[in-house]
User: Which sequence fits this backbone?
């Protein structure tokens, strides 16, 4: 099935598929970020591949390389039991952006918020893009490779809950 996934993508999307490879059973397609929604919609609904599940979404910071950031999507078909990895390199430098896939997979909501929180990738069209792991006053994105590890952050105090004694 691995050859079928990658060949279906190359056949349907042509130049939007920059590269493909299959290493130890892991099928990977490097895609143009502006074709992300169309490719994901095809994999989920229009093809016999039935990629109904977004298993994971993460970001990679390749400091010193252009493009610096890459968003990685792991898709899975529960009925056919195969998977594919999509990599979308982002060319926006210090303000990387890509379209949100929350309209296709609701599970993307928290994954995209995590990528925003830790790497600073903005997901256009996300319904509620805000920090999910760090507090609102936190400055920067700590998983960026140029984030200074000794950086001091503002002290944030949690407001007591209404039922707590002060």
Assistant:
């Amino acid at each position: 099935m691995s050859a079928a996934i990658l060949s279906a993508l190359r056949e349907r999307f042509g130049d939007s598929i920059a590269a493909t490879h299959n290493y130890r059973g892991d099928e990977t397609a490097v895609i143009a970020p502006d074709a992300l929604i169309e490719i994901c919609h095809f994999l989920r609904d229009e093809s016999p591949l039935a990629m109904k599940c977004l298993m994971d979404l993460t970001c990679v910071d390749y400091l010193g390389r252009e493009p610096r950031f890459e968003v990685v999507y792991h898709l899975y078909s529960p009925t056919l039991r195969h998977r594919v990895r999509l990599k979308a390199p982002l060319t926006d430098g210090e303000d990387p952006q890509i379209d949100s896939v929350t309209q296709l997979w609701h599970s993307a909501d928290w994954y995209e918020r995590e990528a925003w929180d830790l790497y600073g990738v903005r997901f256009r069209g996300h319904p509620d893009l805000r920090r999910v792991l760090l507090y609102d006053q936190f400055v920067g994105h700590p998983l960026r490779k140029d984030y200074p590890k000794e950086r001091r952050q503002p002290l944030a105090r949690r407001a007591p809950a209404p039922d707590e004694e002060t």
